[in-house]
Amino acid sequence: MSVTTMWIGLGVFAVLLVYLGYHANRRTTKTMEDFVLGSRKLDKLPAFFTVTATLFSAFSYFGITGQFYTNGIGAWIQVATTAAVGPIIYFAGTRIWLVARRYRLTNVTEYLSDRYGSRSVGLVAGVIVLLALVPYMGAQFRGSGLTLEAVTGGGIPYWAGAIFLAVIVTLYVMSGGFRSVVWTDVVQGALMYVILAVAMVILVLSQTGGFSDLMDTVGHQSELLSNPGGGGLFSLQYLISVLIIFAAAHFTMPQLQQRWMAARSHSTLKFIAISLPIGTGIVYVCCFYIAMVGVATRPDYPSPEAIYPAMIVDVLPQWLLLVAILAIVAATGSTANSIVLTLGSIVAKEHVRPVLARRGASEQALDRTLTITTRTMLPILVGGGLLVAFFGPESIIGIIVSITWPAVFLIFPALLAGLYWRRATAAGAVTSMIVAEAIFLELDRGWLPLPLAGWHPAMPAAIVGVVVLMVVSLLTRPPQQENLDRHFGLFESPTTAEAAR
Amino acid sequence: MTVSRGSRAKAVLAVVLGVVLAALMVYPWPQGESEPIVLGIIPAPLLLWIIWTALFIAYVGWIAYRWDPYAAVVRRAATDTAATAGEVER
Questions:
Q1: Helices A77-88 and B44-61 sit at what angle, rounded to 10 degrees?
Q2: Any CB–CB contact under 8 A between A80 and chain B?
Q3: Which partner for A37 in A194, A262, A289, B25 could form a disulfide, CB atoms 3.0-4.6 Å apart?
Q4: What is the maximal distance between C-alpha atoms in chain B?
Q5: Is the ipTM of this complex over 0.90?
């Protein structure tokens, strides 16, 4: 594709997104709750698109197709994780939705600080989240850079593609906050579903003569159509690890937590729990057949994560190719936008708010300043993501499986204990997170040479984290009754609450 | 939450069903053996996992819409909040 055509397409796309951001800006008030959560008025259909668009990113096009191509059908386990998070969204999500609404909390770290009555819990969780999500944001910029470089034959260099996405995301999130993120997610999410389905049909029909012919060809490579798959990746231990880690981490992810908190009603929350695996399933079925076309027509492709863009460049008509490339860039943007907004709000609430509060700022002035701080933080965080894109790990799925999801997963025990266990203390939560992350890091890097027998290193780390949480909580002074009543009283009938005291 | 006997039975059923479904998901297929292609277009493991996903969605639907153990809590919160200032919609 010519560089000029691509730049024109990108320009139109950028104008559309920035316009949506501007339009959202006109409806956004200056309060933190409105800028970060859209005043908690997220309806069902936008919720479906924004949750799936946030979850599926460069990962959908590159990581999933690459994993199906290399390791086979076991990659479907990720759909199972989005189904398994359904009950967690219903039970724990309802609790956090109610608490956040009652006490006007805007992100998960703020919830943790409030529940445990200690800033240190939110601070530790905030630092973990920052270290986990900035690389993930970097992976999105990397996806955009790689795609544009590949389809233009290097005409748009990698750095230009990465910076393009970073600038556009910063512009529209800064202008419209949560509303612009949701509106652009609806456009980007819809584009993702349509283009993936169309590309799948065209690739299968034009490259292999139809689904039956494709399966005839691929069927001979039985290892890709059964477990443990290519490279023996999908062992029982791996599947169980991924099911637990990803389901818990999907729920804990701060950018998704903001969507649970922003739900207009309980009904919206229930709808998210049901619809998330449906959206995921559609994406994965498309990616499976696209990857199998790659297996049939381009065996031993040197860069499996680039198999999708490599195939569509050869097959799709120019106008559709342009739309397909924009859909990839859109998917990367729809994840990056949510992350950057969430991280901005976490930095503002956890690091800036206490300083301002100490200076005696009024609530109104505090709220206005925090909203401005969140906006100001956006380009700084995006800059961090760009650094990862230029100097970080090369594999997108590597970032997701090795860093982001496991690191966030290890916050889950403290979050769940906060929601369900009155005796859980701040000391227990902080120690649990720090110890679990340290063990995970040591196991993952191989500094602690313990045999894992196929289990993901985050699994033993989480078990230790849970034990530490329980032991330290029981050894330290119980949390203040008043604070516990603020939180747990919401879920208990007056008689049960009395008995619990 | 108030836990009645009927609600406790449903909670036990939900846990058992959840564990059984999760076990069915990760149950390992015969390793490295050739899998049948259903109707010539879809590998048997993929079809079974799609069916599994549909069953799990039905399971979550049963929890959220038929059992709905948080319905009373949400209703109470809506009433409480309406009595103060904001609104919690059902």
A1: 10
A2: yes
A3: A262
A4: 64
A5: no
Instruction: Please indicate if any CB of chain A lies within 8 Å of the CB of B79.
Output: no
Q: Mean pLDDT, consecutive 10-residue segments, chain A of 501 residues?
A: 85 86 74 84 92 78 85 88 93 94 91 93 92 85 84 86 86 81 86 90 91 86 77 84 92 91 94 94 93 90 84 86 85 80 83 78 78 82 85 68 86 95 96 96 86 88 96 94 90 64 54
On the question of a cis peptide bond just before residue A228, with omega within 30 degrees of 0, the verdict is yes
Write out the two tokens for A144.
């955009």
The pTM of the full predicted model, rounded to 2 decimals, is 0.89
Distance of CA B32 to the CA centre of its chain: 31
Q: Which of A76, A101, A250, A496 to mutate to test the interface with B (most CBs of B within 10 A)?
A: A76
Alpha helices in A254-403 (DSSP H): 254-262, 266-297, 307-315, 318-347, 353-358, 363-391, 396-399
Residues 3-22 of B with CB under 8 A from A: 14, 18, 22
Specify the CATH number for A3-409; select among 1.10.3720.10, 3.90.1150.10, 1.20.1730.10, 3.40.50.970.
Answer: 1.20.1730.10
Q: Which of A98, A227, A274 is closest, CB to CB, to B77?
A: A98
Residue A263 pairs with which residues in a beta bridge? A42
